[in-house]
Automatic annotation (TrEMBL):
One CC-aspect GO term: plasma membrane
Membrane topology: Multi-pass membrane protein
Key words of the record: Cell membrane, Membrane, Transmembrane, Transmembrane helix
Name the UniProt record assigns to this protein: Transporter, permease protein
Organism: Planktomarina temperata RCA23
Alphabetical list of InterPro entries matching this protein: ABC_transp_permease (IPR001851), LivM-like (IPR043428)
Species classification: Bacteria, Pseudomonadati, Pseudomonadota, Alphaproteobacteria, Rhodobacterales
Length: 310
C-alpha cells in the first residue's frame, strides 16, 4: 500500500473522530446544522460513488430517500415494527428498486437519463400520495422513537464513513477501474470486454441502498412525514449541487461542497425566505462557469500550476 494511501486513510479517520465529537461540544442549533450536514454528506458521497466515475447525472436520490423514510413510518405506525428492522428493510427495498430501475434504464445516457430519474422520483411521490389518499385514509405517518438529534447524527456519521470506505475499496478494485473506463468512453469499455450494464447496475444499486438507509434514519427527526416532504425533488438537486460544487472526482469532494452550501442556504432562507431559490441558480452558475471540476478540482489545478513555476 502506497504511503499516500495510508496518509489519506489516517486523515479520514482523524476527521471522522473529530466529527464524532461535534454533538458533545455544540448547542442545539449547531447540532441541528450538524445533522443536516451529515445527512447530505452521506447522500452526496453515495451519489458520487455512481455518478462521479460514470458521469451519469442521477436525480433519483429523493426517490430512494423517500422510500426509506416512508417505509419506516409505515412499518412503525401501521404494523408496530421496530425502527431497526424497518431501517434494514428500507435499505434492502431501496437497493432492489435501484437494481430494477438500473436494469431498465441504464442503457440511456445524457439528458435522457437525467429526465428519467427526475420523473421517477415524481412518479413515486404521486403514486404514494394516491395510495394514501384512496386506500389508507390518511396523508401522513407518525414516527415516534426515543432517538435524539445526537443519536441520529452519530448514525448518519456511521453511514457516511461506511460509504467512504466502500468507495475507497471500489476505487482500488477492478470494478473501480472498469467504472473509470466507462466514464472515459463507454464504447471503448464495451470493446475491451467490460460488461458496462452490470457494472453500472451494481453501483446504482449501492447508491439506492445508502439513500434509502439515510431516509430511514432521518425519518424519526421529523416525527410526522408525508410524501411531499420525503420525496421532495429539492433534495435531489441539493445532492447534485453539493457533490459538483465540492468535486465529484474525489470521494471527499462532497464534504467540501456540503458545508458552505448549507450554511449559505440556511442564512439566506432565514433572512430572505423569498429569495432562497436564488441560491440554487447562483450555485449552478458558479459550477458551470468557475468550478466545472468543483473546489477540489480547482485546488488540484492550482497545486499543479504552482509546481510548474518552481
Amino acid at each position: 500500500m502506497k504511503a499516500s494511501t495510508v496518509q489519506e486513510l489516517i486523515i479520514a479517520a482523524i476527521l471522522a473522530f473529530l466529527a464524532a465529537l461535534w454533538p458533545l461540544v455544540v448547542d442545539i442549533y449547531w447540532l441541528g446544522i450538524g445533522v443536516d450536514v451529515m445527512m447530505y454528506v452521506a447522500l452526496a458521497t453515495s451519489w458520487v460513488l455512481f455518478s462521479g466515475p460514470t458521469h451519469y447525472i442521477s436525480l433519483a436520490t429523493a426517490a430512494f430517500f423517500g422510500i426509506g423514510g416512508f417505509l419506516v413510518g409505515s412499518g412503525m405506525s401501521d404494523y408496530e415494527a421496530s425502527f431497526w428492522s424497518m431501517a434494514a428493510f428500507s435499505a434492502c427495498v431501496g437497493a432492489v428498486l435501484a437494481a430494477l430501475i438500473g436494469l431498465a434504464t441504464l442503457r440511456l445516457s445524457g439528458v435522457y437519463f437525467v429526465i428519467f430519474t427526475l420523473g421517477l422520483a415524481e412518479m413515486i411521490r404521486n403514486l404514494v400520495s394516491w395510495i394514501q389518499n384512496n386506500f389508507l385514509g390518511s396523508r401522513g405517518l407518525y414516527v415516534f422513537t426515543d432517538f435524539t438529534d445526537k443519536h441520529l447524527y452519530w448514525m448518519l456519521l456511521g453511514v457516511a464513513v461506511a460509504v467512504y470506505l466502500l468507495g475507497w475499496i471500489i476505487s482500488r478494485s477492478r470494478l473501480g477501474f472498469a467504472l473509470r473506463i466507462i466514464g472515459g468512453d463507454e464504447t471503448v469499455a464495451r470493446h475491451v470486454g467490460i460488461d458496462t450494464a452490470t457494472v453500472k447496475v451494481i453501483l446504482f444499486t449501492t447508491t439506492g441502498f445508502f439513500a434509502a438507509l439515510v431516509g430511514a434514519i432521518i425519518a424519526p427527526r421529523w416525527s410526522y412525514i408525508e410524501p411531499n416532504q420525503v420525496f421532495s425533488p429539492q433534495l435531489s438537486f441539493f445532492v447534485v449541487i453539493m457533490a459538483l460544487l465540492g468535486g465529484a472526482g474525489r470521494l471527499w469532494g462532497p464534504v467540501v461542497g456540503v458545508i458552505p452550501f448549507l450554511l449559505i442556504w440556511n442564512w439566506v432562507d432565514t433572512n430572505f425566505p423569498n429569495q432562497s431559490i436564488l441560491v440554487l441558480g447562483i450555485a449552478f452558475l458558479v459550477i458551470v462557469y468557475f468550478l466545472p471540476h468543483g473546489v477540489v478540482g480547482r485546488l488540484e489545478q492550482l497545486r499543479i500550476w504552482s509546481r510548474t513555476l518552481k
